[in-house]
Amino acid sequence: MLSFDVLIKNGTIITMDRKNSLIVNGVIGINGDSITYIGQEENLQLINASRVIDAQDGIIMPGLINGHTHAAMTLFRGLADDLPLMEWLNNYIFPAESKIDSDFVYTGTLLACAEMILSGTTTFCDMYLFEGDAANACKEAGMRSLMGEALYDFNSPNYGSPENGFSYTELLIKRWQDDPVISIAVEPHSLFTCSPKLLREANELALRHQAPLIIHLAETEDESKYIEKTFGKRPVYHLDELGILGPNLIACHCVHLNSEEIKLLSDKGVRVIHNPESNMKLASGIAPVNEMLSSGIKVGIGTDGCASNNDLDLMSEMDTAAKLHKIKTMDPTAMDALTVFKMATIEGAKALGMDSFIGSLEVGKKADLVVIDINKPHLTPMYNPYSHLVYSARGSDVVHSIINGQLVMYDRKLLTINIQSLMEKANSLAKRFI
Ligand SMILES: [Zn+2]
User: How far is the centre of ligand 1, averaged over its atoms, from the C-alpha of 235 (Å)?
Assistant: First the structure.
């Protein structure tokens, strides 16, 4: 006799397992935080489930993985648009960030969690300031996250002088080391804000704690020029000389790479997060994702922060990614729907080093999954679920969400976040930036 805490039935299951198996009329059983059964409803013997969720012929799929965010920047959404990266950062974002505090980050991150759960994301990878408060918000929301404090060579409104950033990061690692949903990375901001000394020390800290090292890399042409002028080498070679290219490194953006640099990243086992909408909005360029995938690099997809996107909806990000690479290559077969959907699920999990427990729906993996309502005009009829998810579905089509076995959204109602009072607080915090 099979008994479950939660049983989800009556849906097409997109597993994202090794064979990309689809299960029509599928059921998924969950016990505690894990998936304990997956199969067709007619094969399921005796059922005893504490809670049954009817997917109503919809899609049951792995929760989406947002590989790169600055979650609390939801509170800067629309503050400064239509500017180049350096002007945007130096004249608008960095001055605004000098006014933030722990309450700002907690509130902004919780708002980000609400937006991400409502649009199908169950895991995100974050870099920001006051990241301990971001972790508290994430924990409260029930989301899974890999997060870390932004480290750089100037004073931080959170930890003060640069050297304190390391001790703050170490405190975060210790505080969250046994947490089931939150883990901590070491996160030097970028090559243009971090000295070689800081970068080396950050890498040593990451290796000592077996934590990922996360950085913005080769995001703009200006960055490449500046690093080449200052250090005599392009960004990837600069990091290589510092001994930092390795399998613990997750590099966000990687827009400006030549074929030798792609090969070097691949040889060293570096993982990459692609952020197409942010790269488009800041006119940073188009990352060579096809070439990176062909060379065997694990590539995930992210939204980046809300100030450069300006939303955290991975459904629209997938649509953009698929179309952007077709127009770049003038090849409509480039970046097909399944490839893009993989970047937002199992390949994204690989890029974050989490594929042993999330990214696909399989027995033994953590129960991180969402249900999509397809009983809608823009999703009727359905020939190919991957096509629908990448080209037709919207974040608002997600109806239920379970993270680590916990139901966090049911019938589009958030169960862990009081959205009305949160939005009122966000509006009141925004007044300090007007
Ligand atoms: Zn970023």
Answer: 16
